[in-house]
Amino acid sequence: MSKPFDDLERLSELDAEILRLTRSRGQLPSRRAIEEFDVTASGILAERSVLAAERSPLDVSLRSLEQESETLRGRASVIEARLAAATGGGRDLAAMDAERAQLSAHARELEDRELELMEQIEPYEQRLIELDELLAPLQDVRAELAKSLANEEAELDRTLEDRKALRVAVSEAVGSELLERYERIASTMGGTGAARLIGGRCDGCHLQLPAVELDHLRKMPVDVVSTCEQCGRLLLRPDQLAS
Length: 243
What we know:
By secondary structure, the chain is mostly helical. The protein folds into 2 domains: 26-157, Helix Hairpins (Orthogonal Bundle), CATH 1.10.287; 177-240, no CATH class. Helices cover 75% and strands 5% of the residues. It is built from 5 helices and 4 strands, in the order ααααββαββ. A 4-stranded mixed beta sheet has the order 2-1-4-3. The protein is rod-shaped. The mean pLDDT is 90.
């Protein structure tokens, strides 16, 4: 006797394969490559983020000094223009000349501080450039990995749809009553609802059945479906299967 037990075994095999394929989505080669890639890239991005954060206040200070220097130079230029246009002498001209000299001196001080800040910023800027040069090709590599992953997922989806369609056909051949029992057990087990009896062991839970139970199974009519006492799956005996 083989029907409907061969169909039941095939249904169990399909469910096991569908479950394996579904779980394999997270372990696709390109997905794992992307995860490893992202670890490497995240290290570079983390270093870049730290450097950018350390550089930021220096940039703010430099911009502030540049703006102050520009204001001073503008003020000094106005005074120089007035002095050039003035005729004669006088206390006002001397005061303007003193202010111009003071502004020029202050501007030189600011320029010196700007140079100091630029020297502090330079190693940050150089390292950030190096990191950006490392990241640029990595982005292309990740894009290629993403394409590969999309192809692998599409192939997996096609295989899953094929197996699910085949499962529908096999389910119809099992018979409604037996199928209902199988589906109920499969949902409880979170996978397959039937297993072979091989060498006194259930191939579903891989546990050895007690001798008393094995003796009971040997005496059981071939058309009666038994269950594994250990896991509850429908137990397919050798005499029920074609091979």
